[in-house]
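Reproducibility note. Readers wishing to regenerate the assembly model reported in the main text can use the exact inputs given here. Chain order matters: entities are listed in the order in which they were concatenated for prediction.
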Amino acid sequence: MLIRIDPGSDVALFAQVAASLRGEMAQGRLRPGDRLPAAREVGTSLGVNLHTVLRAYQDLRDEGLVDMRRGRGAVVTPRAAALSDLRAEILALGDRARALGMTADTLASLVRDSLSDGQPGTGWPEGPREQV
Amino acid sequence: MAASARTVVARATWVALVVPVVVTAVAVALQLAWLGSLPDPVAIHWGLAGGPNGFAAAWVSIAITSAAGLLLPVLMAAATIPALRRGAQGPTFRFMAALSAGMSVLMGVVATWALAMQRGLADATAAPSITPALLVGLAAGAVVGAVGWAVQPGQEQVIVGASAAEPMPVRPGERVLWTRTATAAPWLMLLLGATALVTVALGVAAWFTDPARAWTWLATTVVVVLAIAGTGAYTVRVDGDGLTVTAALGLPRFHVPLAEIDAAGTGDVVGLGEFGGYGIRHAPHTTGVILRNGPALRVRRTDGRYLVVTVDDAPVAAALIEGLVERRARSRG
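Running the prediction on these inputs yields the following structure tokens for the assembly.
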């Protein structure tokens, strides 16, 4: 299981930790039933506060991706398998968006909007970009 | 220089398997031929004082001779020859084959001699000391072992699937953690678990017959349980500090600081053939946390020594270590 964070990035550290773990689930390297390492150890290794790691774990719990029980730690739920089921489609979508010259932010906001309540996205670039 | 794989496999098969099978077959044939002239029961165990103190029917001796003479060679051959066929080789493979031949000769000589000296006796309690049989058996085993070593080609360590990792790019300032639990092969845990159960059963049995011996078995059980605890699972961690391998109990623990890592790669482990067994193992210039056969992380320290861990996803760990080492080298100019 690989976690990468960049303190120089604008994204909050807890969000980066959560995103790393989601990515591992999507790639099938974290599977249902796997236990996440103790938050304290993750914090020590990454040089971040214990509460930053716990916040990431709580986000994943709120998304139903991990189950947190006293004494057992955080355990990946069967729902994580759904992430890896979507992986092929997500990769294909990413390839398509790249071919169309879309930025990652644009695609992300479109996907986010499509999942909310049908509000049209606002992230289209100003006019089509040319791929060189 | 790597010896020809074909020669290595052929000689190892002769030394590790054919010689023990022939030696054991001869020993069993002799014992069978003597069945008519042996006392019943025969002595099968001798005390430290030299006289016999354990007795059983003659077929028990034959069964023990077959099992003791064949078990180790068959296990050894099954565990190492398929790997030799895939191209693995090294001094430990050579040694284990020679050990297999030597041990079978020791077993065969001692068990057969023990029965030979009881031929014509009316009562096995009159059997003489086993010491000469032991001394001759040890000498013969050593000689056969040495010959078994000599007839195999000299071989450098060859690791199947050995490859250096391509560094995974790590940006300046980025922090990384890779962690994974390395678990023991199920058969290894079954073997240790069965051993623990046997020692417990023998301890309980001894409690009713010889309480003093029960304590010995209890101590043995404790040793086996500790072996299980030290073999069951290790956490393998790669981060800015380097590589850390920690047993589930917290100890033993192995740490290689990033500054002392020269290179990381992967390669297949054959526990018996490369390390002579499983668990925490030492081989020339190498420490191994060997919990199963197969792909392993191999890290070379700057002083030339290796740390080897049989962990899944080793290529990711090796690539990350290489990336961290490269970033460190870059930042130091």
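We highlight two features of this model. The longest helix of chain B spans residues 5-33. The domain at 163-187+226-331 of chain B is CATH 2.30.29.30 (PH-domain like).
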